[in-house]
Design a protein that fits this description.
590 residues; alpha/beta; Glucose Oxidase, domain 1; Enzyme I, Chain A, domain 2; TIM Barrel; 3 domains; eight-stranded parallel β-sheet; 48% helix; binds phosphoenolpyruvate; binds magnesium ion
């Protein structure tokens, strides 16, 4: 145990904690701490049958609570809670708890705690982020049931004032209920990641959120004021007056700025010297499509359809996929919708997936490789895509294409599906077929892929992972996989040249396009079609409008000759600070 002198200072003193900015914005308000749930009582049951009854009543109350939260959400956001509902009624979960009561004679709370711990352990040990996040879901369901067992359902009742919500954790059901409440100015959690369900909900409900602020709860006393800086990923508890005022200023400026950028969102997008740039949006949830177009995206450049599968934990059939794809196409109006076929495997695996992970999942049966190995899954999706194409400008994108042969085999299957639909008399339309360029082999031979693909899209997240042999989910090596490294810039140049040889439309949909310091280099390399997450859209638009092609070309040419990403970043900063410095500051770059 640490000596008292090593304990952190109480929070009424100024305290600054770093976390992950999960939903953009800045808020200042009085903290409302949701106390941690205490430990479950560890007693032997006096009456085992009664404990089983208590458990069943609590499970039923939890189900009703989750259902109410779910009903308050639209169809797509509701899928997040469906995952919890599914877990809640899982036989393994319920039966194991009942058994612990009946066989071991534990009280319901203790039995529940043991079940959660035993089911969670293998999930947490997984190197796969998806499984680790399911451990979080399990924890949330357990916490809900425990609350009902204890009759402790008031802990989430909010005081009658505006507040910054600080909690150890927030289940998606709590997030859905609380983040829509106008009293909640911002949310801070000790756990979570930028891709956790709670983060997705915070973004969708536009509430600034900083997650992953480990150890914060125990350091807060009373109800101090806090600055939640969800641009820089920082929380300052009991800020001094200057910090408080500066944060209020920056928050207001950010809102004004984002809304002023939004005012111009629908103006044609051109560089300062008149080069047209097409800006599309990346989405994970269908519900994001409408917002993307309202924020000035001219279409959906990447719909990561595997989330449909991951959230449901089951394979959606052709009809349900069709319904979802149609809703995205409708939301995009006349704009294009690029539907990427399931990028499953690697770190993205659904519940109960029967695929073996192999010695190295990132290098194994993933994405298109899995689709070609399991064509039934692929065919169902392709049929739904071709049918949705009747309603608008739909394009089909294949993830992780490595060889020309894979592209040909996938194209042949798409052709077969089209013929099948024709024979069945089902309305459908042919669609352009594109290849993701995200493996170095594909980047080096883009010219060959470009001959046969109708369009290309660069995934820099994976391209960096595979180029630098650094797992994108491993913080120990993530620094190595910097897309601004000149090695990656060389590959990007080869991709741009290869696509141009056959005049194929080329998009960058990897996160590099949304990185404020990388974007000028990307444009300088010749990319004129970008697809970025929603939150980045206004900043990308503004950057494009302020820069000119000759300057960016010279910048990219110089960057490629440097020795490291650090040098490239320094070059970008020194060359463009005058024109883009304020934008970088607004996005939290010091
Ligand atoms: C990428 O790899 O850059 C990409 C856009 O795909 P994902 O992040 O979904 O792997
Ligand atoms: Mg990828």
């Amino acid at each position: 145990m640490s000596a008292p002198s090593e304990l952190p200072p109480p929070s009424t003193e100024r305290l600054e904690v770093a976390g992950i900015a999960a939903s953009l914005g800045i808020a200042v308000g009085t903290v409302h701490v949701v106390p941690r749930t205490g430990r479950a009582p560890r007693r032997r049951a006096q009456d085992r049958a009664r404990e089983v009854d208590r458990l069943k009543t609590a499970l039923e109350a939890t189900r009703a609570e989750l259902q109410v939260a779910r009903d308050g959400l639209d169809e797509e956001m509701g899928l997040v809670l469906d995952a919890l509902l599914l877990m809640h009624s899982d036989r393994l979960f319920v039966d194991a708890t009942v058994e612990r009561i009946e066989r071991d004679g534990l009280v319901a709370e203790w039995a529940l705690e043991r079940t959660v711990a035993s089911l969670k352990a293998p999930l947490l040990a997984s190197t796969n982020r998806y499984f680790r996040e399911r451990a979080e879901d399990l924890e949330h369901v357990g916490a809900h049931v425990l609350r009902h067992l204890r009759g402790d359902t008031d802990r989430w009742t909010l005081p009658e004032r505006e507040l910054v919500l600080v909690a150890a954790d927030l289940s998606p059901a709590d997030a859905a209920r609380l983040l829509g409440d106008p009293r909640v100015l911002a949310v801070v959690t000790e756990t979570g990641s930028a891709t956790s369900h709670t983060a997705l909900l915070a973004r969708a409900l536009e509430v600034p959120a900083v997650v992953g602020t480990r150890g914060l709860l125990d350091r807060i006393e009373g109800t101090p004021e806090a600055v939640v800086d969800a641009l820089r990923g920082r929380v300052i508890v009991a800020p001094d007056a200057a910090e408080r005022d500066a944060a209020i200023d920056r928050g207001a400026r950010f809102l004004r700025f984002a809304s002023s950028l939004r005012d111009r969102a629908h103006e044609a997008l051109r560089t300062a010297d008149g080069d047209a740039v097409e800006l599309l949006a990346n989405i994970e949830l269908p519900a994001e499509a409408g917002a993307a177009c309202a924020h000035g995206a001219t279409g959906i450049g990447l719909y990561r359809t595997e989330y449909l599968y991951l959230e449901r934990g089951a394979l959606p059939d052709e009809e349900s996929q069709l319904e979802v794809y149609r809703s995205v196409v409708e939301a995009a109006g006349t704009g294009p919708v690029v539907l990427r076929t399931f990028d499953l495997g690697g770190d993205k695996l659904p519940h109960g997936a029967r695929t073996t992970r192999g010695p190295n999942p990132a290098l194994g049966l993933r994405a298109l490789r899995l689709s070609l190995r399991r064509p039934a899954l692929f065919r169902t999706q392709v049929r739904a895509v071709l049918r949705a194409a009747v309603s608008g400008d739909v394009r089909l994108l294949l993830p992780l294409v490595t060889t020309v042969d894979e592209l040909r085999r996938a194209r042949a299957i798409v052709e077969e599906c089209a013929r099948e639909l024709e024979a069945e008399g089902v309305a459908h339309a042919r669609v352009p077929i594109g290849a993701m360029v995200e493996v170095p082999a594909a980047a080096l031979r883009t010219e060959r892929l470009a001959r046969e693909a109708d369009f290309l899209s660069v995934g820099t997240n994976d391209l960096a992972q595979y180029t630098f042999a650094a797992d994108r989910g491993d913080p120990d090596v993530s620094e190595l996989a910097d897309p601004l490294d000149p090695a990656l810039l060389l590959l990007l140049r080869s991709i741009v040249d290869g696509a141009a040889r056959h005049d194929r439309p080329l998009t960058m949909c990897g996160d590099m396009a949304a990185d404020p310091l990388a974007l000028p280099v990307v444009l300088g390399l010749g990319f004129r079609r970008l697809s970025t997450p929603l939150a980045a859209l206004p900043f990308v638009q503004e950057t494009v409008r302020r820069v000119d092609t000759p300057t960016l070309r010279a910048l990219a040419a110089e960057a490629i000759e440097l020795d490291s990403a650090v040098e490239v970043r320094a070059l970008v900063r020194s060359s463009l600070d005058g024109s883009l410095g304020d934008l970088w500051t607004e996005q939290g770059l010091g």
